[in-house]
């Protein structure tokens, strides 16, 4: 079992990771890996599983794709939606025409649950991303068993060969990996590990401070053709999406703004259909200020 983490000096992230280590140990006792593999053997063999291509869903010619997130709470904001109903949220996202859905499954810090992923799979055929703090191979097998089409991996947490191994394992199970980064070094690590989809997190997981300018600063380091770029966190308005589209991002992942909107369908409508421009060598958010219709 591979568990590769980086120490971050009593930050919020380190507290989350410490709890996640304990949680995975308890989960493995209740449902051993051998049982998950047995379930997957049946699931992947008969009948042939339907392929929901997460990467293809994010390639919209000339437009920014939208990954809408099911998220009850966060460490920085607390409760986002008091009358949280994950099934209703998934249905609203599907009705509104999002391109993919992200399901937060961390219980303690984000109010999620692995069961929400399985429930979402029974409602929609849209590609599903499991968003959690993945530190073991066990969680990747579990993710596939729950019906996900992609799994979030944190480049800042998975060190050595672990990131590449986890990407390979996800693909062997019919999933893709969204590799989240925050620095030029993490982007290089992701590219060297074979990542196809790279997320740039505008939120610092050590402090939970947010700045969408982080995407503009870092996108230039993603220099391999065909790599899909996703901007994550802090995206609230159509103007934000347009600014990021002008930088050449392929997709945005939006959670809090949609969950707090009161009407997820209207929230999605405000963020969809934004033009994406070719990726630039240099990108500043001021490039899109004053653009009509944003």
TrEMBL record:
A GO biological-process term: L-tryptophan biosynthetic process
Q: Which reaction does it catalyse?
A: 1-(2-carboxyphenylamino)-1-deoxy-D-ribulose 5-phosphate + H(+) = (1S,2R)-1-C-(indol-3-yl)glycerol 3-phosphate + CO2 + H2O
The record's listing under Gene3D superfamilies reads: Aldolase class I
Family from the record: Belongs to the TrpC family.
State the protein's name: Indole-3-glycerol phosphate synthase
Database matches in NCBIfam families: PRK00278.2-4
Q: What is the lineage of its organism?
A: Bacteria, Bacillati, Bacillota, Clostridia, Eubacteriales
Q: Write down the EC number.
A: 4.1.1.48
Every copy of the Indole-3-glycerol phosphate synthase domain together lies at 13-271
Q: In which pathway does it act?
A: Amino-acid biosynthesis; L-tryptophan biosynthesis; L-tryptophan from chorismate: step 4/5
* Gene from which the chain derives: trpC
Which branch of life, at top level? Bacteria
Query: Which keywords fit this entry according to its UniProt record?
Result: Amino-acid biosynthesis, Aromatic amino acid biosynthesis, Decarboxylase, Lyase, Tryptophan biosynthesis
**Database matches in Pfam families:** IGPS (PF00218)
Give this protein's Gene Ontology molecular function annotations: indole-3-glycerol-phosphate synthase activity; phosphoribosylanthranilate isomerase activity
Top enzyme class of this protein? lyase
